[in-house]
Design goal:
This is NADH:ubiquinone reductase (H(+)-translocating). By secondary structure, the chain is mainly α. The chain is about 75% helix and about 0% strand.
Amino acid sequence: MPEENEMITALAQNTDAVVEYINIPTIIENIVSRNAILLPLYGFHLWLPKAHVQASVSGSIILAGVLLKLGGYGVVRFLFLLDKINICDYFIDFFLYLSVYGGLLVRFFCLRQRDLKVLIAYSSVVHISIMFFGLLGFSFFGYYGAIFIILSHGFISPIMFYFLTFIYNINHSRSLLILKGLVIVSPLYCLY
């Protein structure tokens, strides 16, 4: 108990003193288990396309607009601790390769996808991978660029699911094979 009280007191006074009480595996476990699943990074993203397909329109809008941004918020909150404990020496290369490799691989998944709802979900994984790559640079532009991507993705992705609902109500299909001439008929929907 005295160690917990000392840690709480140190946290209230100065964040530099907290670093002495935190071990690196605890930080990594917290980031990976709680935030990487919500981000979603490649490898932790397997639930996202299935959740979007099974969810209703309002569920997909909330999932894309709010829930996925909580992982980005968690990483932004952990960023000052990651910079102070020099996690770059240990795991930064792994997370950088994971975000770059995952972003490139999921882009190829997007090219092969025929369902528009799953396509939007996979494109969210690509955008979040770019955001995570920017955050791991520990730079001014990377930090604010990642926040810009989080905010813009929080507005654009729900709008894309909302437009997809209109397209589905008119054509009764989400398949790209059936909707391939949609850009000629209604270019406003294809703007997003």
